[in-house]
């Protein structure tokens, strides 16, 4: 059985990796925007897979919101 992934890499299997990477990147000012993009992608992928009300979607959305708060 062959697993076909989309060419852009936006697959549900990558949601957790995008979340973890986003969490790391938002901690550094020079990579803040890139981290936010990864968190947004993670939230969108999780929502598509798990549904909007799932706790892991809320987790990603919360991390994204917290990254928008000035430090």
Describe this entry's structure for a reader:
The chain has helices at 15-25, 32-50, 55-68. It is mainly alpha-helical and 71 residues long. Helix 1 (15-25) runs antiparallel to helix 2 (32-50) and helix 2 packs antiparallel against helix 3 (55-68). It is flat.
Quick take:
By secondary structure, the protein is mainly α.
SSE layout and pairings?
Elements: H1 15-25, H2 32-50, H3 55-68
Helix pairs in contact: 1-2, 2-3
Radius of gyration based on Cα positions:
13 Å
Given as residue ranges, the uncertain stretches (5+ residues, pLDDT < 50) are none
Number of strands: 0
Helix content: 55-70%
Distance between the termini: 48 Å
Strand content: under 5%
The coarse silhouette is: flat
The number of distinct helices, counting runs of at least 4 residues, comes to 3
Features:
mainly alpha, 71 residues, 3 helices, flat
């Amino acid at each position: 059985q062959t697993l076909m992934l989309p060419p852009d890499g936006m697959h549900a299997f990558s949601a957790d990796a995008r979340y973890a990477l986003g969490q790391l990147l938002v901690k550094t000012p020079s990579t803040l925007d890139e981290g936010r993009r990864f968190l947004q992608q993670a939230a969108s992928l999780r929502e598509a897979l798990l549904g909007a009300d799932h706790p892991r979607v809320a987790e990603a959305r919360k991390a994204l919101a917290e990254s928008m708060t000035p430090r």
